[in-house]
Amino acid sequence: xxxxxxxxxxxxxxxxxxxxxxxxxxxxxxxxxxxxxxxxxxxxxxxxxxxxxxxxxxxxxxxxxxxxxxxxxxxxxxxxxxxxxxxxxxxxxxxxxxxxxxxxxxxxxxxxxxxxxxxxxxxxxxxxxxxxxxxxxxxxxxxxxxxx
Length: 148
Hints:
With about 150 residues, the chain is of the alpha/beta class. The chain has helices at about 10-25, 45-55, 70-75, 90-100, 115-125, 130-145; strands spanning about 1-5, 30, 60-65, 85, 105.
């Protein structure tokens, strides 16, 4: 698995925690910033990660901002992206099993570093179940293809 990760200024600390997790799990990754504590615009980080996941350069992407909301909205504008905002382990597992999400968003002002690591680990290690869920995910994909 190959993962792209980025944050805006509001997600620096949790991004560092998740990078440590990726290293511990021996998952190949690219850190796409940001490196400043001054205000930056989250779409400038979310969209490049989402585009690189959508074009197959990366299998998955992880985004962190203050709430995770802006990052997830921006990422989901990219065709082929299914980005879930998750701040609990149940949602992290369910979004992989049921929705085959390829991106995860979290908010540093919402979730602590320990729980963020747990959420990310579960999301990274949970497999998509397919089956009845494939029909639902397929409907989303079909909609995207028909509405450029």
